[in-house]
């Protein structure tokens, strides 16, 4: 099934975000783990794996639409050097991709590509949940201070 080239181009843009996100969240996970913050390590690692699964779904969809997935394009990683900066970088990265997802959903709807629309809708739902989680982490830092916050992230239970 051949799709509108605009849809394939948009799906590839979303794929670029996902591929970049995999790397950013994976590196942040390993940095958190290296510093002993297992709860943050686990959360970032889980996000990188989920992004990998979402990238896989996008690749499958692009191929189904007889497009060529672009795995060579990667965006700039936003890597923090301290824990709060890393969380802020992750929040900014995700927040920046939401408008693209909304635009892609609208175009898929207009082009009556409901399968791609639904795929993108599941992606935006996950990203919005992660935005909420990151905002909660930054709020906690503001309320309890970075030292107490990080102490609470030493175990995986959080």
TrEMBL record:
EC number: 1.16.3.1
GO terms of molecular function: ferroxidase activity
The entry's keywords: Heme, Iron, Iron storage, Metal-binding, Oxidoreductase
Pfam families: Ferritin
Keyword Heme: yes
EC class (word): oxidoreductase
Cofactor(s), by name: heme b
Keyword Heme recorded: yes
Domain of life: Bacteria
PROSITE patterns: FERRITIN_LIKE
Similarity comment: Belongs to the bacterioferritin family.
Record-given protein name: Bacterioferritin
Source species taxonomy: Bacteria, Pseudomonadati, Pseudomonadota, Gammaproteobacteria, Celerinatantimonadaceae
The gene coding this protein: bfr
